[in-house]
Specification:
- It is a single chain.
- With 318 residues, this protein is of the alpha/beta class.
- The protein has one domain: TIM Barrel, CATH 3.20.20.220.
- The chain contains eleven helices and eleven strands.
- The strands form two sheets. A nine-stranded parallel sheet has the order 9-8-7-6-5-2-1-11-10, with helices on both faces. A two-stranded antiparallel sheet has the order 3-4.
- The two termini are 21 Å apart.
- The chain binds flavin-adenine dinucleotide (FAD).
- The site of flavin-adenine dinucleotide has 23 residues, from strand 5, helix 5 and helix 6.
- Flavin-adenine dinucleotide binds next to strand 5, helix 5 and helix 6.
Length: 318
């Protein structure tokens, strides 16, 4: 079922969902199941599965030279989506990226999703590779998420790449896109970034999931500004519980988001990672309670593969 239908059918009740990352290449899917199992009692209507783009690795050839190879550390997004969908009878949302894929490769991923009965996809640009300063699209790939949304919409209309005749076998994907309450790090202003978000919605995006944020006022202001900009699709808040002390530096550095002073000082007082994890849980519970009271459509949690903290949060709320 489409995410937008899940939201409609909930009749104003806030839903619980979460995002997982595929295991590292060579690991077992059972580890993933072990982390999903405890969250199923909260009846998530959908689970997102991220996609990681390819990276360069340098292999020592033993003669003083390095060999540059390309690798994908966490492949298998669509396979994992299919496995989870059929094991738990839950909708899954594969993340589809512009970066690292040609349009043809993207089309094959989408065709696979269609065959597997996956009704929702999250359309994202992806980031630059670690050695790059800026995002560079693949030759023959999509540049911005808007272009990817357009490609998915083409499939929804039966228009496949290079096909002379339109197919009668149309896809019917519900499309999610990313939104940034504190603006995307490359955007020159929040207003410009909102204009870009509007372009994604005008191209066919059905809902938005936000980047993590720790100050609900930023989310509320973002939703208001989005409405004023003519964006009328559901905007789902993304919530990340702080789990290790290093997040105090890492999250602002990677995602250009601010952390509230109260949270910083509570985390700084912690002596162990277990204490930090507990502070993260308690903060996320308070944050979620306020969002719940405001009637957000879904509370969407970034689990990063470990679910004990998400379970602790959900058990207070759902
Ligand atoms: P876009 O919407 O294309 O925007 C990227 C930047 O370009 C923005 O600054 C925007 O303002 C600007 N822009 C857009 N259109 C134009 C235009 N026409 N001209 C000029 N500028 C323009 N990354 C992964 O690698 N894998 C994942 O699974 C993943 N999942 C995510 C899930 C969520 C909910 C979120 C919020 C992010 C996720 N990301 C993921 C990270 C995401 O790929 C990065 O934030 C990326 O840098 C931007 O992606 P986007 O889809 O928002 O890009």
């Amino acid at each position: 079922m489409k995410i937008t239908d899940h939201i409609k059918n909930a009749n104003g009740k806030t839903l619980f969902s979460f995002e997982i990352i595929p295991p590292k290449k060579g690991n077992n899917i059972q580890d993933l199941y072990n982390n999903i199992d405890p969250l199923m009692e909260f009846k998530p209507p959908f689970i997102d599965v991220t996609t990681s783009r390819e990276e360069y690795v340098y292999i020592d050839k033993g003669n003083g030279l390095l060999d540059r190879k390309i690798t994908r550390m966490r492949p298998g997004t669509v396979g994992i989506c299919a496995a989870i969908k059929h094991k738990y009878d839950v909708d899954t949302v594969p993340h589809v990226l512009c970066g690292g894929f040609t349009k043809e490769e993207t089309e094959y991923v989408l065709v696979d999703c269609h065959y597997l009965g996956i009704d929702n996809v999250m359309a994202l640009r992806g980031d630059a590779m670690s050695h790059q300063k800026y995002f560079i699209p693949n030759e023959g790939g999509n540049h911005y998420a808007t272009d990817l949304v357009k490609q998915i919409q083409d499939l929804n209309c039966g228009k496949y790449l290079h096909d002379v005749i339109e197919s009668t076998n149309k896809a019917d994907f519900c499309i999610g896109v990313a939104g940034y309450p504190e603006k995307h790090l490359e955007a020159p202003s929040l207003q410009t970034d909102l204009k870009r978000l509007k372009e994604k919605v005008d191209a066919g995006a059905d809902y938005v999931v936000t980047q993590m944020f720790f100050d609900n006022n930023k989310y509320f202001a973002f939703v208001d500004a989005a409405k004023k900009a003519g964006i009328n699709v559901p905007i789902i808040p993304g919530i990340k519980p702080i789990a290790v002390k290093r997040h105090l530096q890492l999250l602002p550095q990677v995602f250009r988001i601010d952390l509230p002073e109260t949270l910083i000082s509570e985390v700084e007082k912690c002596k162990t990672n277990k204490e930090v994890r507990q502070v993260g849980i308690e903060f996320a519970i308070q944050q979620s309670k306020e969002l719940l009271a405001a009637g957000v459509p879904v509370l969407h949690y970034y689990s990063m593969g470990k679910s004990d903290n998400i379970q602790a949060i959900a058990s207070e709320l759902f």
